[in-house]
Design brief:
- 2 copies of one chain form a homodimer.
- Helices cover 26% and strands 27% of the residues of chain A.
- Chain A is α+β, with helices and mostly antiparallel strands.
- The first copy, chain A, folds into 2 domains: 4-93, OB fold (Dihydrolipoamide Acetyltransferase, E2P) (Beta Barrel), CATH 2.40.50.140; 108-415, 2-Layer Sandwich (BirA Bifunctional Protein, domain 2).
- In chain A, helix 2 crosses helix 4 (231-252) and helix 2 (112-134) packs across helix 5 (254-264).
- The two termini of chain A are 51 Å apart.
- The interface between A and B is large, with 101 and 101 residues.
- Strand 8 of chain A pairs antiparallel with strand 8 of chain B, so a sheet runs across the interface.
């Protein structure tokens, strides 16, 4: 036979000392799997503890155990960074819950569960970019700081230089500036020159909530498609992206996803099949369920309604289309259907999470857009987009954390983002 | 022969009416090249103007002209969005300068130059992600909102909810919160569990500058490599990434890059060769150039020095290494070389732009880090990273806009980002 001389650098995940032999598992973060190291017990060292950083040289050989292809027979073990087991908050062989590890934002990446989550998140981001790239979308870096308050959408963060403000000084940007709640309007600018554009980045809501569903800083995937006149073109992109990203993640992070499906949410399954619905209200009204909120036409869907609809359809993703016009923001396209009067809007509801995506055709007709109040002053640039070479178009946004919650079955949104920000909490 | 029935949807870039025939160029944003449409002059329409949006159906045929493989013989032309040539700020057949089109942030993507830029930017972003992915880096979404002020690095933006503040209310996050100036410290958290990590996203400086070199919001590519003890490991990653991204862009956006090299910066060339230097001060001192700023050991390099060094080396990218320790932030690794006393830091200087990347080995030794003042209180979590399984590591950041300026030869940083933000300007 022949030997492969090998050097592994990583962190100790387990230590087991027997009479003659020492067994270590060393993980370098590239996957959930650790490399088993076998050494003579002479190489043992009191600094070889759970969490310590090591460099091990030796020869790689076929493992006698079925669940690992190879193991490393160590010739030298060097502890480069010690880790006091008393002070270190994670203990060997314990499976700490997500809530416990969340208390240590600077260390939780060193647990199996959270390092798996971070690899999955990275791979899912890659999958999103790949999907759009392969389908001819141009990526646009829409701005984080913006002077428009979008749909007047709820709670905004405002931005000014820190430190003592000069009282006479105006705003830094001469106008009030906010953190973006959506890149949509900026993407729509690009829809006047590109057939397909997308953006993928952080968005913000100053919501005073510590719920398991909300963050002050979260990631959105947003896309706009030009020259489209049907919601089904949009739902097709939403469904394709969901399916393609999910297949990619399942294929590239099998062990990591397995860890979640087995240990974090036993029995969780992902079903990328979808169903299209435009009679959501009828379904709600025909049900015998008692809802806290009204289900009359013209009322918005509440979380309880969304949950019912998903359950009613057999716990698969469900598209709800054509919402009452008056419930939707100014840019949603008027279906001009009387007497209902709906807007060409669509939401994608998924099991466990509720609303995952929201989208609409955009009102491309200058006269109809003008008829809605208040745009001339603050959004004259937006009207310009309809003045010059306007095209029918539409788009949607997907909450990236909710997507991760959905495929992994993670209950709390704080457990799917590296550094969660929410009211009263901005650690690190 | 056979005919290919074809439908193109796009924007009119040129109109030429002859006696019998009408010629259009229609662009859909997928590339710089437009499709030539040939129609009977009966299909002419006064609404067919520069900038209008059209849908054209017809048959695709081999073009008699050498510079285009095919043309579309139109059967039907439908103007979906008109464009009044008097009001539209861009005029047919005029080559507007970057400075002129910058005045119209919502429309400038409709010019050849800026749509080329946006395609190049999108492709360069893809190239950056691909490089890291192919080299085993995990992507980390480092936070935009942070409670640490990093290196005390200059001007920070602070973040609070907009609208009337409740006087009794503390900060939204209970502590002052800022927009990030760098994802480095958050990446270093991840360097305790992954061998290689990177982040690519927006960063912020509240610099009161309207110069052609500065933005309040700009993109950084940042990477950290664990288990490394040499600056050369870092410069290798920097050089590889630069080379790989540039080759990718040149290969995938040849026409777009050509537009810049021919028309925007005639004669501009990219040279991805680099050179390593740790005797920058000697070179400056031996030169006969008169500098405004001193070149004594211990003084920081100024723009004039950087320019000289790049020129001195033959206008290629130059690495400058091992800066005076006292000039570098607390995290830079002490080389413990006396009497010079340097830190293991490196900058990459490039022609035209100056500093493109900055990086360093990070001080992984707890005792040395503690010896620098003030960390116990505000950065106890950072010290924890050295307390538990600390590893020698290092990293760097690259200014993405400066990278684009460098490869395209664009003088003003505002012309390489979709929506530039700087003091007194936050349009859209």
């Amino acid at each position: 036979g022949f030997f492969i001389f090998f050097l592994i650098k990583g962190w100790v995940r387990s230590v087991r000392a027997q009479k003659a032999n020492l067994f270590l598992h060393v993980n370098d973060g590239s996957s959930l799997l650790s490399l088993q190291v076998v050494a003579s017990s002479e190489l043992n060292d009191p600094l070889l503890t759970f969490g310590s950083a090591v460099e091990v040289t030796g020869t790689l050989r076929k493992s006698p155990h079925q669940n690992q292809p190879v193991e490393l027979e160590a010739q030298q073990i060097h502890v480069v960074g010690e880790c006091n087991p008393v002070d270190f908050p994670f203990k060997i062989k314990e499976r700490h819950g997500l809530e416990y590890i969340r208390q240590f934002p600077h260390l939780r990446c060193r647990t199996n569960a959270f390092s798996s989550l971070l690899r999955i998140r990275s791979e899912a981001a890659t999958a999103v970019h790949s999907y759009f790239k392969e389908n001819g979308f141009v990526q646009i870096h829409t701005p984080v700081i913006t002077s428009n308050d979008c749909e007047g959408a709820g709670e905004l963060f405002q931005v000014e230089p820190s430190g003592p403000q000069n009282e006479e000084e105006e705003n830094f940007f001469s106008v009030p500036a906010f953190l973006t709640v959506s890149g949509q309007l900026h993407l729509e600018v690009m829809s006047g020159a590109f057939s397909r554009v997308y953006t993928f980045g952080p968005t913000f809501r100053a919501e005073n909530s510590q719920s398991r569903r909300h963050l002050a800083e979260f990631y959105m995937v947003e896309a706009e498609v030009s020259f489209t006149q049907s919601l089904e073109d949009l739902t097709k992109v939403m469904e394709d992206m969901f399916r393609s990203a999910t297949e990619h993640v399942l294929a590239h992070c099998a062990e990591d996803v397995d860890l979640f499906h087995k240990h974090v949410t036993p029995g969780h399954r992902v079903s990328p099949e979808g169903r299209l619905f435009n009679l959501a209200i009828d379904i709600l009204n025909r049900s015998s369920e008692k809802f806290a909120f009204p289900t009359d036409w013209g009322c918005d869907l509440q979380t309880e309604h969304e949950k019912y609809l998903v359950k009613h359809c057999g716990n698969i993703p469900v598209f709800v289309t054509d919402y009452p016009y008056d419930l939707k923001p100014f840019y949603a396209r008027d279906n001009q259907d009387h007497p209902e009067h709906t807007a060409a809007a669509v939401d994608l509801l998924v099991p466990g999470v509720g609303e995952l995506c929201g989208g609409s055709l955009r009102e491309e007709r200058l006269d109809l857009l003008r008829a809605r109040a208040g745009l001339e002053d603050t959004y004259s640039w937006y009207l310009d987009l309809r003045r010059f070479g306007s095209v029918p178009h539409g788009g949607f946004g997907l909450g990236f954390e909710r997507y991760l919650q959905c495929i992994l079955g993670v209950d709390n949104i704080k457990d799917v983002i590296p550094f969660p920000r929410f009211s009263h909490s901005c650690l690190l």
